[in-house]
Amino acid sequence: MGAAIRAREEEAVFRFLEVVMEPHHSILEVGCGTGNYTVPVARRCAKMVAIDASPEMLQYLRERLLREGLANVETTLGQLPDGLETPKKFDGTLAIGVLNYVEDLEEALRSLTSALRPGGWTIFNVPLLNTEGRIYALTEMLNRRRINILSLEKIIALAERLGLQVEMTVPAGLSQGGLTLVVGAILPATPFDEL
Question: Quick one: CA dihedral 113, 34, 11, 180, positive or negative?
């Protein structure tokens, strides 16, 4: 069941990346884990920073990157909303499977958005407030983990309130309604950004 949902999420993520990602881009991934997205994305971009809250995951990822011959990825310990106070801005950000667990979803998404250059893009997912999402939330509560679960409308409204222009929403799950909503968005550039 988890593999089928993950495959649908990956399909949506890579479809959006094909449209927005350029070979010269610098990309920030929060919650990189073992590198499910890090490795394929690093092969298609100039530079990548991969952040995770687990030192063990980062060590595994470093070893994997070495085996894969990828030297354009910097790994660092951190989590949302903290740990993104970087002076450099990125062309793109990824946060897949991360926003489920942050305490303050709006602050975490604000932090992710603040790491973008004007005209940059982001892709993230959030569990949906529907039958699949409620079942997921219940199973997580049994494991003593509280998760964020929102309606499609609230996820889009939150992204727009933070200045993002939502370009893509794809539900990923076992049903048509989906367990999570994969969101691809752009941070529009203003005329003042080009001065």
Answer: negative
Given a contact cutoff of 8 angstroms between Cβ atoms, the answer to whether 104 and 129 are in contact is: no
Between CA 173 and CA 2 the distance in angstroms is: 9
**What does the radius of gyration of the chain's CA atoms come to, in whole angstroms?**
16
Question: Whole-angstrom Cα distance, residue 20 to residue 14?
Answer: 10
Query: Which backbone phi and psi does 26 adopt, to 5 degrees?
Result: -105, 135
Q: Name the helix (H) or strand (E) containing 129.
A: none
Answer whether 113's CB lies under 8 Å from 161's CB.
no
> What is the rounded CA–CA span in Å between residue 133 and residue 139?
10
Name the residue among 104, 103, 96 with its Cα closest to residue 145: 103
pLDDT for position 115: 92
Determine phi and psi for 94, rounding to 5 degrees: -130, 140
What's the Cα-to-Cα distance from 122 to each of 38, 53, 87, 88, 114, rounded to whole Å?
14, 20, 18, 16, 11
Whole-number pLDDT of residue 63: 97
- Write out residues in the chain with pLDDT < 50, as ranges: none
pLDDT of residue 139: 84
